[in-house]
Each structure stands twice: as structure tokens, then as C-alpha cells.
Design goal:
alpha/beta; 8 strands; N-(1-d-carboxylethyl)-l-norvaline Dehydrogenase, domain 2; 2 domains; Rossmann fold; 10% strand; single chain; 51% helix; eight-stranded mixed β-sheet
């Protein structure tokens, strides 16, 4: 099936980013939202983004105009979907809202149209069940911001056809992005299955007084090789996003995350991170500045607990055939900016120490979340 016309539902950060890169790849795009003001703001952001590419000499002024001409906006949902080959939903992470949206467009979109959700955590199979085209329904999870991030997780539901999967992967490749197949529709998919529990684990270290926030962040950055601290990354992502993802993942699989009340507390106070001016750190309203961390701070904290949880979840993904080891490693590098493979870090630390750390946490907390995965146990034996 040839994809020519794409409809993006939602014009927020993800929606307008997906619309932009799709138009840049030559597709005709319709972007739909519930109010014209949202669409106007989205088009302003797209123009700004493209103008930066012109300034850097990556595209010409004529190319910018051609890209903009390929994007049409509307508040009329019937108008938005009537000619679409592929519809990508990028609305808020609310299962009820997503199901209602898909149920509505299922009756008005052409029979050949493929439906895709940009959800970061919600189950694809459950969403697809709201439609009569479960074979033509798939998850295409872009990372923020879509214009810059190379990783795209592709998640088939239980009844997604092979042809739909092929179309989705080819579409992602046409954007010059890196598709990583998430073979099973599990809570958190690949990257968030590792990232969300890491935020909570760091928060537990903070709550238990094991180290200060800056020390944990510095060790995460300098000792584990991430581009920023875990708390800084949570603030950048959005505490509201982390909180909602946690709720959805925990509701479907209690072994996927050990929720720390610090996240709930920040969320309830409206401290969403960089976007609200305060999260774990404080920011000047409307601006984002990197947190300056030092190696001296890193030396005061051993991040073995964080590494152990990350490696354990990565091992679970491999053991349960959600993704192969190489794809898990690539997803973490592209999606979280990890400099080297997570298993390389674990090997240097020592698999025996990783497993002992997990067993200690399991026994002290009486929480099966920390149960070492069979793959890790075998690596110790090997």
C-alpha cells in the first residue's frame, strides 16, 4: 500500500512535529485540532522550526515554502480524515479520549486507512478494540521532539497485520528515522519500560536519604553516561507525563514500576518540571537551562541501584521476546542518549553485584519488582 496522504490528530508538541517531518518527507499532511488557535500556534512553531533550517543552510527558502504548502489545517474531523491513507493520533494520554476518537473516525475514514497512535505507554490492542479495523491499527511512538529524535518505536497490536506493520516501518524509514520494533504490546514498550521505573528508583534514593538530588543526577550523568541527570531528564520530559505514564503502566502490570510518592506529590502541586517553572529543580518561567553538575558531586554517590533496575528491565524485555538485545541497546542510545550499551555498563560493574543489589532490594522491600530476571541470573552463572 502506498502512503501519500497523512492526517495528524492533535497539534501539540508531538502532533505538529510529526506533521512537519511528514511534510518534509514529501507527504501531503492534514493537521487537525479542536480549536483554530491551537492550529495557528502549531503552524507558527513549524514556520519557526523550518526557518532555523533555512538559516543553517539545510533547506532553501523555496523548499520551506513547498513544505508549508503540503500542510493543511482544519478543526473539522470529517474533513481531516476523508482522504487519509494513514492517520496518526497525537492527542493527550487519556485512554477514554483516544478510544472515543478512534471509534468516531472509524466510521468516517476510508476503509483502506491505517490508524496509528503516538502513545508512549497505552496498550495498542486495547485502543484497536474500539475500531473495526484491528488489523490496520498500530503504534508509532515518536520521541520528543520528533524533528530531532531519531528513534521511533513501532508497536503492533495483537491483531495488527504484517502488511500494516510493513507500511508503518517503511513510513518511519521514509522520514529518515530509525524504527525499532517492539514485538509485544507490553506496558511502557521499550524505552519507557526502562525510563519510568528509573525516575521512581532515583526518587526512592532521594526519599530514603541515600544521596542528594544533585549527587544522584551527577552520578547518572558522569558514571552511567547519560546526557543529563535522571531528575533533570524527568523535568524536561514533564512530571505530568511521568505521572500519567506511571499510572497507566502500573494499572496494567504492577511489576513494571515501584511508584515513589515524591512523583505523586510533585504532580499534585502542579510542579511539572521545565514547562511549569518547577519540578525537581526550579527554572525561570518559559525558559530551559541545563543543570550544571560536576564530577565531584558524582563521586559522592554510587548509582548501582539505578543501573541494576535499568539492566533488570532491559533483561526482562529480551527474555520475554519484546525486543532483541541489539534493539534494546539501540533504543536506549537513541531514545535516552546513553553513550554505551547498558549491558556493557553492567558487565563492568559486575553481574553478580547487580543481582545481589536486586535481591537486597527485593528482600528489604518485599517487592517482586526487584526480582532478578532469568537472563541476569544466567549471566552471573556464565
Amino acid at each position: 500500500m502506498a502512503i501519500e496522504r497523512i492526517t495528524v490528530l492533535g497539534s501539540g508538541i508531538m502532533g505538529h512535529g510529526i506533521a512537519q517531518i511528514s511534510a518534509m518527507a514529501g507527504y501531503k499532511v492534514v493537521m487537525r485540532d479542536i480549536e483554530q488557535q491551537f492550529l495557528d500556534k502549531a503552524m507558527e512553531r513549524i514556520r519557526w522550526s523550518l526557518s532555523k533550517l533555512v538559516e543553517k543552510g539545510r533547506i532553501s527558502g523555496d523548499e520551506m515554502n513547498s513544505i508549508l504548502e503540503r500542510i493543511r489545517v482544519t478543526v473539522d474531523i470529517e474533513e481531516a480524515v476523508k482522504d487519509a491513507d494513514l492517520i496518526i493520533e497525537a492527542i493527550p494520554e487519556d485512554m477514554r479520549l483516544k478510544k472515543e476518537t478512534f471509534e468516531k473516525i472509524d466510521s468516517i475514514a476510508p476503509s483502506h486507512t491505517i490508524f496509528a497512535s503516538n502513545t508512549s505507554t497505552l496498550p495498542i490492542t486495547e485502543m484497536a478494540g474500539a475500531t473495526k479495523r484491528e488489523d490496520r491499527f498500530i503504534g508509532i511512538h515518536f520521541f520528543n521532539p520528533p524533528q530531532l529524535m531519531q528513534l521511533v518505536e513501532v508497536i503492533p497490536g495483537a491483531r495488527t497485520s504484517k502488511s500494516t506493520l510493513d507500511v508503518a516501518i517503511n513510513y518511519v524509514k521514509s522520514l529518515r528515522k530509525e524504527p525499532i520494533l517492539c514485538r509485544k504490546d507490553v506496558a511502557g514498550f521499550i524505552v519507557n519500560r526502562i525510563f519510568i521505573p528509573l525516575v521512581h528508583e532515583a526518587a526512592w534514593e532521594l526519599k530514603e536519604g541515600k544521596a542528594g538530588m544533585r549527587e544522584i543526577d551527577a552520578a547518572f550523568k558522569f558514571k552511567l553516561g547519560f546526557p543529563m541527570g535522571i531528575f533533570e531528564l524527568a523535568d524536561y520530559t514533564g512530571i505530568d507525563v511521568v505521572h500519567k505514564a506511571t499510572k497507566e503502566m502500573y494499572a496494567r502490570d504492577r511489576k513494571v514500576v515501584n511508584p515513589c510518592p515524591i512523583i505523586e506529590d510533585l504532580y499534585s502541586k502542579g510542579h511539572y518540571g521545565q514547562k511549569s517553572g518547577r519540578g525537581f529543580y526550579e527554572y525561570k518561567q518559559g525558559s530551559y537551562a541545563r543543570v550544571e553538575l560536576s564530577m565531584q558531586e558524582a563521586e559522592r554517590y554510587d548509582p548501582v541501584r539505578l543501573l541494576a533496575v535499568a539492566v533488570n528491565n532491559a533483561s526482562w524485555l529480551i527474555s520475554n521476546d519484546v525486543a532483541g538485545k541489539d534493539d534494546v541497546e539501540k533504543a536506549l542510545m537513541l531514545g535516552m542518549g546513553l553513550k554505551e550499551g547498558i549491558f556493557g555498563l553492567a558487565e563492568r560493574t559486575g553481574y553478580a553485584r547487580i543481582v545481589d543489589t536486586l535481591k537486597g532490594l527485593r528482600d528489604s522491600s518485599r517487592n517482586d519488582f526487584y526480582e532478578p530476571d532469568a537472563l541476569l541470573l544466567n549471566l552471573v552463572k556464565g
